[in-house]
Write a structure and sequence with these properties.
single chain; alpha/beta; six-stranded parallel beta sheet; five-stranded parallel beta sheet; 34% helix; disordered C terminus
């Protein structure tokens, strides 16, 4: 009977020898070799080369970008069957959750970057030594915390935050965090701190509140919309509980109400009272061609006085 193993954590490399049967549900951040007589069910992530000797068996359900094999008949692609002779690319099949929020995550980062630029908060980001990927990461991880921390949710988080195809969308120092598998996330993320995320609005949101766009809309709305989108996308990865949905919706309501209140005051273009309206002068009718002299046109109505716009107050004393 073959020696059966299930790997849920992270390894630097893996060799599946003759007579061994391995199910990989975690990650290998290096190369994997499946030797003659060995069997691998791959449901996780392999970042290096996956090599399959003749007479080995591979069932591929997880992520593996580079696969080399001596005999195509030794490979079974989940949902695709046996690969055709001469195939060069491995169809993407998993793991479940991988890539599920990548697009929403990327848009959220871009929207926060735009809001930060519009509000002139670049120095704040430099001071805290974190970019906006960290704000998206905190919100998404908090959604995972209340939604059950399932493997699918954690793979979605890893795909977007650590292994995102767009390098600019990855969180800074991703490699130093040693997060490569769901088990890594459960063991290394500060869940006690993460669970307090919904207790108060994020600091970036607070700093954006007094800054408005040309319409008088608070830039905090951009933060609210970006974080709402990524949290809701995470809820959709696995079936959420009613409690998880309620927690996130209550948090979203708090942000929306505060952003609305910040937008409800006088806009920068209306801080000075406008001049009172004057009655419109009646234009004289043009006289007919038989008139002895043309009628003089009425004087034009004076233009209304324009309000002098005021620059938004500095947020330095509103920080915290």
């Amino acid at each position: 009977m073959p020696d059966e193993r299930v790997i849920t954590g992270t390894l630097d490399e893996l060799v599946v020898g003759e007579g061994e049967s391995v199910t990989l549900r975690g990650s290998v951040v290096g190369d994997v070799e499946v030797q003659h007589g060995g069997s691998l069910i791959h449901e996780g992530l392999i970042t290096g080369l996956l090599y399959v000797e003749d007479g080995a068996h591979l069932q591929l359900r997880g992520r593996a970008d580079r696969v080399e094999r001596e005999n195509p008949d030794d490979i079974e692609l989940h949902g695709h069957g046996r690969p055709a002779d001469g195939y060069s690319q491995v169809p993407f099949t998993g793991p479940v959750g991988w890539g599920a929020i990548d697009a929403v995550w990327g848009r959220a980062v871009a929207e926060l970057d735009k809001a930060v630029d519009s509000g002139g908060l670049g120095p704040y980001l430099q001071q805290r030594k974190e970019d906006t990927t960290e704000d998206v990461f905190r919100a998404t991880t908090a959604a995972v915390a209340v939604a059950g921390r399932t493997d699918a949710q954690l793979w979605a988080l890893l795909s977007a935050a650590i292994f995102n195809p767009a390098e600019s969308a990855r969180i800074r120092g991703a490699g130093r965090r040693r997060l490569s598998s769901p088990e890594d996330c459960r063991e290394r993320l500060p869940w006690s701190d993460v669970e307090r995320y919904f207790d108060s609005p994020p600091e970036l949101f607070i700093r954006l509140l007094p800054h408005v766009d040309r319409s008088g809309r608070s830039l905090a709305f951009d933060c609210y919309e970006a974080l709402s989108a990524v949290m809701r996308a995470m809820l959709a990865v696995s079936e959420p509980t009613d409690e998880a949905v309620a927690a996130i919706e209550a948090f979203r309501t708090t942000l929306r109400e505060q952003a609305s209140a910040a937008s409800a005051g006088p806009s920068p273009a209306a801080t000075k009272p406008a001049a009172p309206k004057r009655p419109r002068a009646t234009r004289a009718r043009a006289v007919t061609a038989t008139s002895a002299a043309p009628a003089r046109a009425a004087a034009p109505t004076p233009a209304r006085a324009r309000a002098i716009s005021a620059e938004p107050e500095s947020t330095d004393r509103l920080c915290g």
